[in-house]
Amino acid sequence: MCLLVILLFLAPLLGRAQGIVVLGDSISAGYGLQETEGWVHLLGQRLASQCSAMPVLNASVSGETSDGGVSRLPALLERHQPDVLVLELGGNDGLRGLPPSRLAGNLEKMVSLGQQAGARVVLLGMRIPPNYGRAYTERFEAVFKQVAENNALPWVPFFLDGVVEAGQIQSDGIHPTAEAQPTLLDNAWPVLREVLPKDCQQ
C-alpha cells in the first residue's frame, strides 16, 4: 500500500515532459514552408544535438490570435506539462486592429497559466506596419514590453528583427522565407538560453 501511494505521488513528476511548447501563429507555424524549414524545427534540431531531454512541441497555428491562445493553452499545459512555454502571439491581433488592451489581458492570462503550471515563460514581441497609425502601433508594441516587465520575463522586442531588412519576406509581404528561419532562431536563442538547463545553453 505504501509503495502504491508513493508511486501515485510521483507519477505527475515522472510524467513531466521536460520540454518546450511554442504557442504561436503563422510565423512559428512556418506558413508557406516545409515543416523542416521552420525556426521551431531548427530549434528542435539544435537541442536534439546537445540536449535531448528538451523536446520541442510546435503548437502554433496559422491565423491564431491571442484569444485563441488563451483558449487552447490550458489543454496544452495539462497534456504536455512543459518546462518552457514560448509565446509568439499578437501579430494577428494587430493586423485585425483589435484593442491592445485585449492583447495585453490575454498575454497576462497565458503567462499566468504557464507559470502556475510550472513552466518558465518566454515572450517574443511583434510589430505591425506603420499604416495602422502611429498611436495604434505604439500602443501595440508597448504591450509586449509591459507584459514582460510586469512578469520579469525574458523577451524579444521584435522577433522579426533583421528579416525585413534582408528582404527575406514571402511574396505576400507578411511571412518570412525559409532563408529567414535561422535569423528567427538566432533572435529567440539568447532569451531561450536564459530558461534552459546549463547543459542546453551551448
Quick tags:
5 strands, 10% strand, 8 helices, 5-stranded parallel beta sheet, 49% helix, alpha/beta, 202 residues
Briefly, what is this?
The protein is of the alpha/beta class and 202 residues long.
Protein described:
The chain has 202 residues and is an alpha/beta fold. 49% of the residues lie in helices and 10% in strands. The chain has eight helices and five strands; from the N terminus they run αβααβαβααβαβα. A five-stranded parallel beta sheet has the order 2-1-3-4-5, sandwiched between helices. β4, α7 and β5 form a beta-alpha-beta unit. α3 (39-50) packs across α8, α4 (66-80) runs parallel beside α6 and α6 packs parallel to α7 (134-151). The longest helix has 18 residues, at 134-151. The radius of gyration is 17 Å and the shape is globular. The model is unreliable at 1-17 (pLDDT under 50).
Largest sheet: 5 strands, parallel
Average pLDDT for all residues: 91
Given helix and strand content, the structural type is: alpha/beta
Give the helices and strands as they follow along the chain.
HEHHEHEHHEHEH
In terms of per-residue confidence, which ranges show pLDDT below 50 for 5 or more consecutive residues? 1-17
Radius of gyration: 17 Å
Strand order of the largest sheet: 2-1-3-4-5
Shape category? globular
Number of helices: 8
